[in-house]
Design a protein that fits this description.
Blueprint: H1 2-35, H2 50-81, H3 86-95, H4 101-134, H5 142-173, H6 178-201, E1 208-210, H7 214-227, E2 234-237, E3 248-251, E4 258-262, H8 263-268, H9 271-286, H10 289-311, H11 315-320, H12 328-343, H13 347-368, H14 371-384, H15 393-399, H16 405-415
Parallel strand pairs: 2-4
Antiparallel strand pairs: 1-2, 3-4
Length: about 425
């Protein structure tokens, strides 16, 4: 009983501590943004108006307020499902159906996933139609929003269903080394989805047209040649169908890689600025950032499955987290819910590594395009996406996957010898 009580107490403490830290960081972010709302940082004063700067501040605060609610709801739901006995109740309910353990397990996990999605749906709707709409970003219609939900659900069933059933079967029939085979299946699944995404999955949600601008296409193709990047095409995505935010990325695996520009990005940036943005994205490729992140992800999944293999045979793990009947599906579900709680305080490490990669990609871009073109492009994206220029340092260090605007633009200007 002491061990059970100790693990339960540790889980609750970590969950509540994580929620309080997130709330505290949000408070710091709101205070920092409000404190600088009335003046544009000097390095941006010639490119961003006070009106645009205040709009970005208000947009950041609006999202933060919704995040306060999201944290509270998410934490309460997590505790209700685990130590509150929610998973146990759902398991007993499906147990009355008389199905075998494999199908019962899949039904329990699917029920929890659906429940969490339904609880989060009002916040998602508010974020899309209220906040994004209020600041002029949302272009998603209710019909399109619902269609996206059903497409996502269908993909989850078609792709995630077989994977889930395979892992549950292995947990029950493959002995103590089940997790090694499961990891191999997970690796194959990850690579398959990454390869298939640009050609078969993404087109279910957006239209992708070959880049029609001949002059820009020649500039892009020359850059790809210089960087040694072989893509299956350069495409423009109808991002404006859902939002006015702009972006660019490359996706896919092997010979199935694609360069993708949002149509909103094409509309706002000059050709040389688009080239500089693409050079940054190609920097991630040439510096093997994508490969490194994939390797780390696979190593972490290997370690995670190995740990799950141990916890699945440990009765205390189940009892401490509110489950009375030990089962493979309960072990998998509890692990999925408990892992983010246990790893939350490692978030700054991942964010720091990502920011380091962004700086490295910026430096690479400066060797293939003009640094000032990339700086100008980023300033336009900050302005048009209403990104705050004055984040709280602690919040940025904890969460930001990209360097704060002042630091990033300052480094780019320093590469040209200009004063930041």
């Amino acid at each position: 009983m002491r061990a059970m009580h100790g693990l339960t107490l540790a889980f609750i403490t970590l969950a509540l501590a994580g929620a309080m830290v997130r709330q505290w960081l949000l408070g710091r972010q709101v205070d920092a943004v409000r404190a600088h709302r009335e003046s544009v940082p000097a390095p941006f004063s010639s490119n961003i108006t006070l009106t645009d700067h205040q709009r970005a501040a208000d947009f950041t605060v609006a999202h933060a307020r919704l995040s306060y609610i999201d944290i509270i709801v998410g934490t309460l739901l997590l505790l209700a499902l685990t130590v509150g006995g929610g998973i146990d109740a759902i398991d007993r309910m499906w147990g009355q159906a008389g199905w075998n353990s494999l199908w019962q397990g899949a039904a329990v996990i699917a029920s929890v996933v659906v429940l969490m999605s339904v609880v989060g749906l009002p916040l998602s709707v508010w974020r899309t139609f209220r906040i994004e709409g209020r600041f002029g970003f949302n272009r998603t219609t209710p019909a399109l929003y619902v269609a996206d939900l059903f497409k996502g659900l269908l993909l989850g069933v078609l792709l995630g269903g077989p994977l889930l059933l395979a892992i549950l079967w292995l947990m029950e029939h493959a002995g103590t080394a089940w997790w090694i085979v499961a990891w191999g299946i997970w690796v194959a699944f990850t690579l398959l989805v990454t390869w298939a995404w640009p050609t078969f999955i993404a087109p279910l949600f957006n239209k992708f047209e070959p880049l029609a601008d001949a002059a820009l296409r020649l500039r892009v193709e020359a850059l790809l040649t210089r960087c040694g990047f072989k893509a299956k095409g350069v495409f423009v995505m109808d991002g404006s169908r859902r939002s006015s935010h702009g972006n660019a990325y490359f996706t896919g695996l092997g010979r199935n890689k694609r360069i993708v520009f949002f149509d909103t990005l094409i509309e706002r940036l000059k050709h040389e600025e688009i080239e500089a943005v693409l050079a940054h994205e190609l920097g991630h490729f040439r510096l093997h950032h994508v490969r490194k992140r994939l390797v780390v992800s696979l190593v972490m999944s290997f370690a995670g499955l190995a740990l799950l293999g141990q916890l699945a045979s440990w009765p205390v793990f189940f009892h401490a987290l509110g489950v009375t009947t030990q089962s493979s599906h309960a072990a998998l579900l509890l692990f999925m819910l408990a892992t983010p709680v246990a790893t939350f305080f490692l978030t700054p490490l991942g964010a720091w590594w990502s920011r380091r990669h962004e700086f490295e990609a910026d430096h690479f871009a400066s060797t293939q395009a003009a640094p000032l073109d990339l700086a100008e492009a980023l300033v336009k994206l900050y302005r048009d996406n209403a990104s705050t220029l004055t984040p709280d340092p602690a919040y940025a260090a904890f969460y930001y996957s990209h360097p704060p605007a002042l630091a990033r633009i300052g480094r780019l200007k320093a590469l040209t010898g200009a004063r930041p």
